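Researcher: I'm preparing a figure for a lab meeting and need a structural model of a single chain. I don't have an experimental structure, so a prediction will have to do for now. The sequence is pasted below. Please return the structure as C-alpha cells so I can convert it later.
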Amino acid sequence: MTMDDEATLIAGLRRRDQQAFAAFFERYADRVYRLAHGIVGNEADAEEVLQTTFISAFEAIDRFEQHARLGTWLYRIAYNHALMLLRKRRPVEPLPEDDGELPMPAALTDWTALPEERLLSREARDILRHAIAALPDGLREAFVCRDVEGLSTAECAQVIGISEGAVKVRLHRARLAMRERVSAYFGEWAAV
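Model: Understood. Here is the structure written out cell by cell.
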C-alpha cells in the first residue's frame, strides 16, 4: 500500500498501521523538527517536541476532523508542544504594543549583489540562526512558520491560532527586526 494520498494515509493511521505511521513520520518529521527548532531554539528541545508531537498526533488521529490539511494539523500540535516547553523554561514575552510606528532599519543593504556561496556559508547561516533566536517569541513563531517553513499566511494563522492580519503584522515586524540584526554583517559584503 502506498501512502502518497493523504486520505489513504489518514485511514492507515486510524487503523494503527505501522507502515502508515512510518510514512507519516517520513513525510513530516523534518518539517516538524525545523518548526520546533525555530521556536524553542535548540536541538535537544526540538527533538523532544518532535517526539511528543508524533505521539500526540498518533493518539489523536481519530479526532482529526480534516478541516485542515494533515500537515497543518500536525504543525499546530508541534507548535503547541513547543510553546508548552518554552513556558516551562521561561515566561512568555509580550509583543510590543502597536503605536503605529514601525522601526526602520539603520542600514538598508541591497543583498541581491551578494555571491550565493557567501549567503550559504556556515557563518552566514549561524548569523541568521542567532538573529531568528533573538526575535521575541510571537515574531519568531510567525517568521519561522511563514519564511522558514513556507506555510501560507492562512496556514500560519491556523497553526499559531491568530488571525491572518495578525500573522502579517508579526511577519512584517519580524522581517524588519531580522533585517536590522543582519544588515551590519551582510552590509560589509555588499560594500566590497
